């Protein structure tokens, strides 16, 4: 079980820390049928309509709700009560009673101030702060035409509240006959200081609700974006140090932590710790302890997590009323009406469940089931036990059973949990995760058929929702299929094909993050209303389904009408997704939708084979496809072993302080033995090998793998894999299918445009983009960027070779992102960016992989010098090849650099490139210029890009020690360049406007 599976708590606690809007107000479905009520303090137009009554000590004559500025939630409530309205009565209503109790559950107020409203009416004004969000709020008790009036609302609604309380129409000015409003004068300083309106409050609450929904479906990357935006709204209006920002900050922190971005999460947790004690929401300190506990779990410190969660339970318990310990109906009703009590109950239950997870991880699994039972009892006694939380409780209990060796019991609990998730969030990630966990446990009990049924049900959800799971959850599915194929030879071919598709369901965290960024970019695509509208329609359909599922979750018994509404909404969602696919054909590529073996087989040429792989903690699988045939082999090593081998190869291939090191031929051969040799019979004879790597292997140029042992002194004659195949890398098999559907070559009329010799931003500009205290790793990476003078000669030589016009080499200070965007890039078959690409392993301060250009003159920071991957989506290209000839994946091994490079490639593919030629490490200027020039020469003569790059690399190997220095046989010189994607293919569009390149010996 993962600590991040505490999303139920986060989902519900998002509603606790920021209670859903109906904790304050009714849903705004009827908010459009009101009457004009004038304007508020921000001059936003308001409407008033009948509203629901609130608790009050006197009969309510009329209840009204005010809506301002297009916000769909009431900005204010006004209740007209019966009875006398003398000073003593006003004091009593302002100081206590049922209405004041209701108010205090939602806001925290200063003592009442005696004042008057416009027209001279006596009043009591309460300056308040909303517990959720910290927004300024006001409450007013005054004498109305028919008796006392009690009202509350967003502070900017006070002028409207006054008019309604006094019985005046919308056209009545504030300074009516009888005197000005002393109440408004008291509030005016606060209203002007807090420059906000109802739209800000509405935006904040929408974002918090969206974050909750996304977190509930365990989409932590998207939830992060929602909470980050909510925090930005608060900080803009209330200030960065306002204690009420702690709630959004905590939710943001825990979603970062759930993505294992621990350093970023810790910074936010520390900031929140200084703010939480002063927050208007009294549950915030308990939540801080709770989320610190979850963060400790994510960091692998279960013992510390146990202590923090226990402290959180004690804090939550101080806000849990007796209703959670009894079952008296009225007390339960009171509890449900009190957002603070709800928050505390849900927090207490989830802290207990999370502590059960921590106990299991600390080796104390026997104590966990009793704690889970306590958590569920707290919810039942409070009348709060949603299916989502029940599902998580069952999954937590199953985790304890797994640790105790009770495999069959764990499988049964997981199946029950999957059923609960199918009700609470049908067809979403939590259900799929739980089905995969259940399948793993069924495999351990020897029930392979049941296991495969669970895996297949979960896989259907993943394919329908176009989402992935962590590799460790998917590898057991491959294991089950592999064992079934061994036991059932007649079905082996179909099962191997299923293994191919199953391997694509795995997704690593950096990839998930990029996909989220890219998809969000499409959602706000500027200048393309069709894309923007289609993606927003899809998002609206998702939101509608979440609301309907929540409604069904709360319903009891059969509800045919509700089920029909859900079916209709699902159909609308399917139609919306089709519209997105039509408006943005590359959208599916960005989502990494899995494709089947038949689709890939149809995309491969006669002389091509595809090799893909997946490595879990203890073992992995390599899978090959050629001529419609799929073969798969189990590899008896885990991801860490593979990462160690990749690290050895990379360290021996990159130049260091002592120069070029001895190449680790043993590690290069061992990787070939593990990855390629098991499938050699199927791969032999393929002219081109398409490689879809996984995890740490994304940081490896496959051409330098060795088929046979070789001495470090005989590298020129070694049996490199590049000697047997031209090699192209793809982020996923699905990417290959998408690229092949686009055709074989560019139709652009012009041969080449190149950019190089960038001028790095200054140290001061970098410092503003990467504050050292918060962005240490990124700051060190960025400030280490140096000018690349060799790229000027490289671009000029390439321009001349391809016969492009002199002004098609854009260099030095002219190479800015703005200048690049001004070019009609879709007119060029080759786009050459001879510059750095920042590909950090932890995408933190630089949120995504970026290409670096010159900073424009006078730029305050380095930001304008970065072309981010999601911004590449806005470019329009028709290029056979985009060359990034000074790229660096940012370090050996690990998923970070390779994953980021993969994401950058996807962005260029979406923009219209067919291939991306990049370097895996900082390269020698002469070797880079030779590789680029010879590759372009061969491609210009008609070779496919993969074959052209292979020819250039073989030329360096063959000429090492003859026309070239002997050192050029070392992979540092010839191996860093790789082709990602297709580039130009055999039979593609040939040269048009360019001159034929002169022949060159080799």
TrEMBL record:
Residues 666-982 form the CHAT domain. Gene3D superfamilies: Tetratricopeptide repeat domain. The keyword Acetylation does not apply. It comes from the Bacteria. Residues 531-579 form a coiled coil. The keyword Coiled coil applies. Keywords: Coiled coil, Signal. SUPFAM superfamilies: TPR-like (SSF48452). InterPro entries: CHAT_dom, NLR-like, TPR-like_helical_dom_sf. Residues 1-17 form the signal peptide. This is CHAT domain-containing protein.
């Amino acid at each position: 079980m993962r600590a991040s599976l505490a999303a139920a708590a986060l989902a519900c606690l998002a509603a606790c820390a920021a209670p859903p809007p109906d904790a304050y107000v009714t849903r705004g479905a009827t908010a459009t049928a009101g009457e004009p009520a004038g304007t508020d303090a921000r001059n936003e137009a308001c409407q008033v309509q009948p509203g629901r009554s609130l608790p009050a000590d006197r009969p309510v004559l009329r209840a009204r709700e005010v809506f301002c500025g297009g916000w769909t939630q009431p900005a204010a409530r006004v209740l007209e009560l019966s009875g006398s309205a003398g000073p003593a009565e006003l004091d009593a209503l302002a100081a206590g009673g049922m209405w004041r109790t209701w108010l205090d559950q939602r806001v925290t107020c200063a003592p009442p101030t005696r004042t008057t409203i416009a027209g001279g009416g006596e009043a009591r004004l309460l300056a308040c702060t909303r517990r959720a969000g910290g927004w300024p709020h006001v409450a007013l008790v005054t004498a109305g035409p028919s008796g006392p009036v009690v009202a509350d609302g967003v502070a900017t609604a006070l002028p409207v509240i006054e008019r309604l309380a006094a019985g005046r129409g919308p056209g009545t000015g504030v300074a009516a006959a009888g005197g000005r409003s002393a109440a408004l004068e008291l509030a005016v300083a606060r209203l002007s200081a807090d420059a906000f309106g109802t739209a800000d409050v509405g935006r904040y609450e929408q974002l918090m609700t969206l974050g909750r929904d996304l977190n509930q479906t365990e989409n932590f990357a998207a939830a992060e974006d929602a909470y980050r935006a909510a925090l930005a709204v608060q900080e803009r209006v209330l200030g960065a140090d306002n204690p009420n920002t702690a709630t959004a900050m905590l939710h943001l922190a825990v979603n970062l932590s759930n993505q294992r971005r621990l350093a970023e999460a810790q910074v936010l947790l520390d900031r929140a710790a200084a703010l939480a004690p002063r927050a208007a929401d009294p549950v915030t300190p308990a939540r801080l302890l709770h989320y610190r506990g979850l963060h400790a779990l994510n960091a692998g410190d279960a013992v510390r997590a146990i202590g923090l969660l226990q402290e959180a339970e004690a804090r939550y318990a101080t806000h849990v009323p007796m209703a959670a310990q009894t079952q008296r109906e009225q007390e339960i009703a009171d509890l449900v009406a009190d957002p603070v009590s709800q928050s505390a109950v849900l927090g207490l239950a989830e802290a207990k469940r999370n502590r059960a997870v921590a106990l299991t991880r600390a080796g104390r699994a026997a104590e966990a089931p009793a704690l889970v039972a306590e958590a569920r009892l707290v919810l039942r006694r409070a009348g709060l036990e949603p299916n989502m939380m029940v599902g998580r409780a069952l999954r937590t209990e199953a985790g304890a059973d797994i640790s105790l060796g009770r495999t069959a019991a764990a499988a049964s609990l997981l199946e029950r949990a999957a059923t609960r998730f199918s009700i609470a969030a049908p067809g979403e990630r939590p259900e799929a995760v739980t089905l995969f966990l259940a399948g793993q446990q069924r495999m351990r009990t020897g029930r392979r058929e049941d296991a495969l049924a669970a895996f297949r049900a979960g896989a259907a959800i993943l394919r329908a929702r176009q989402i992935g799971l962590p590799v460790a959850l998917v590898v057991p599915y491959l294991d089950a299929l592999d064992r079934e194929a061994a036991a059932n030879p007649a079905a082996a071919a179909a099962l191997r094909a299923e293994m191919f598709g199953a391997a694509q369901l795995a997704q690593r965290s950096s990839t998930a993050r990029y996909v989220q960024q890219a998809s969000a970019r499409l959602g706000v695509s500027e200048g393309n209303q069709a894309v923007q509208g289609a993606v927003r329609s899809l998002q609206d359909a998702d939101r509608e389904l979440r609301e309907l599922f929540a409604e069904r979750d709360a319903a009891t018994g059969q509800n045919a009408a509700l089920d029909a509404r859900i079916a209709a909404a699902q159909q609308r969602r399917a139609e919306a997704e089709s519209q997105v696919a039509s408006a943005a054909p590359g959208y599916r590529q960005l989502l990494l939708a899995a494709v089947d073996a038949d689709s890939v087989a149809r995309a491969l040429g006669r002389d091509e084979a595809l090799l893909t792989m997946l490595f879990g903690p203890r073992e992995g699988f390599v899978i090959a496809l050629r001529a419609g045939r799929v073969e798969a082999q189990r590899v008896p090593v885990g991801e860490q072993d593979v990462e160690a081998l990749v690290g050895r190869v990379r360290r021996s291939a990159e130049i260091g302080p002592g120069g070029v090191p001895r190449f680790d031929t043993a590690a290069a051969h061992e990787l070939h033995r593990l990855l390629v040799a098991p499938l050699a019979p199927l791969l032999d004879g393929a002219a081109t090998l398409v490689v879809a790597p996984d995890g740490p292997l994304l940081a490896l140029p496959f051409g330098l793998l060795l088929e046979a042992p070789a001495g470090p002194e005989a590298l020129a004659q070694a049996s490199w894999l590049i000697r047997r195949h031209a090699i192209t890398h793809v982020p996923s098999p699905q990417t290959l299918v998408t690229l092949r559907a686009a055709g074989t070559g560019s139709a652009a009329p012009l041969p080449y445009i190149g950019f190089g010799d960038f001028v790095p931003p200054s140290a001061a500009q970098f410092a503003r983009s990467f504050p050292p205290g918060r962005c240490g790793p990124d700051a060190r990476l960025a400030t280490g960027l140096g000018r690349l003078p060799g790229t000027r000669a490289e671009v000029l030589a390439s321009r001349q070779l391809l016969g492009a016009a002199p002004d098609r080499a854009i260099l030095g200070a002219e190479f800015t992102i703005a200048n690049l965007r001004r070019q009609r890039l879709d007119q060029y078959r080759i786009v050459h960016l001879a510059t750095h690409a920042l590909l950090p392993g932890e995408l933190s301060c630089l949120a995504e992989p970026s290409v670096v250009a010159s900073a424009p003159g006078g730029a305050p920071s380095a930001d304008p010098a970065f072309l981010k991957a999601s911004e590449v989506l806005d470019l329009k290209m028709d290029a056979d090849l985009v060359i990034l000839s000074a790229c660096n994946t940012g370090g050996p091994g690990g998923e970070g650099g390779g994953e980021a490079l993969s994401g950058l490639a996807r962005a260029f593919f979406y923009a219209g490139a067919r291939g991306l030629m990049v370097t895996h490490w900082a390269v020698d200027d002469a070797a880079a210029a030779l590789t680029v020039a010879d590759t372009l020469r061969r491609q210009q003569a008609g070779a496919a890009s993969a074959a052209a790059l292979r020819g250039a690399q073989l030329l360096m190997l063959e000429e090492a020690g003859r026309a070239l220095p002997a050192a050029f046989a070392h992979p540092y010189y010839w191996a860093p360049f790789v082709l990602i994607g297709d580039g130009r293919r055999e039979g593609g569009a040939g040269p048009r406007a360019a001159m034929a390149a002169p022949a060159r010996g080799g």
